[in-house]
Design a protein that fits this description.
Elements lengths: L4 E3 L2 H4 L2 E3 L13 E4 L4 H4 L5 E5 L6 E6 L10 E2 L2 E2 L6 H4 L3 E3 L11 E4 L5 E3 L4 E2 L9 H29 L3 E9 L5 E10 L1 H6 L2 H9 L3 H10 L2 H14 L4
Antiparallel strand pairs: 1-9, 2-10, 2-11, 3-5, 4-5, 6-7, 8-9, 12-13
Length: 242
Amino acid sequence: MTSQHAILTAEAHRDLTIRTERAAALGDAAMCCITVPDEFRAVQSEYPILFRLSDTRDRFTALAMFGFENGENLFLEDGRWDARYRPLAIEIQPFLIGGSPTDDGIGQVHIDLSSPRIDQGGQGERLFDTMGRPTPYLDRVAGLLGTLDQGYRAAPDFFAALQRHDLLEPFTLDVTLDDGSRNQLVGFHIIAEDRLATLDAGMLAELNAAGHLLPIYMAIASLEQFGELVGRRNRRIAHGRG
């Protein structure tokens, strides 16, 4: 489905409501979403964090992983998201900040009018009250958008530091499930722990002063969540929902 972005205004979108329940039909059937270093501490408590090099091989992004294959979200359970924390990129849908991450001006709230979450005055959360004022729901979303936008703006320095110190290495995960089937993740990167261990005190102090050391360790810690992800996949197989 082609995205249809528009600047959110009370005049044009006063009667829109947003469905906030969680379901594949509402766009939640995704194996991963973008995350930013500023939220690694929260993300790592639930999801593995992996890094992926762009098709042009000139920049990395970080991803919170929900499954092992396209369209698989192992956290979706009967209309709810079975985790204590949902990444910001999930929480703000179907909204986004307009403009470039390098723009210095205040970002505008945009809405993707093609999103299945949008309802014309029916189910879900209203964006504006009858007077055209933002509702508490919209105020909350705007705050999350601001946090995510700030994270996007800070992320390039983090990835530049990782590349400067050669702290990313290719990663492949090959898992044999309880029914004998195999799941594999390829084409990703993780923090190179051996390389990190060789950095001298000055390099580590530089990373720490820039605020990069904590998200590095959070990304490493997040890999422990692959055990839980495999467990979720095996439980679905056991219940005949593999």
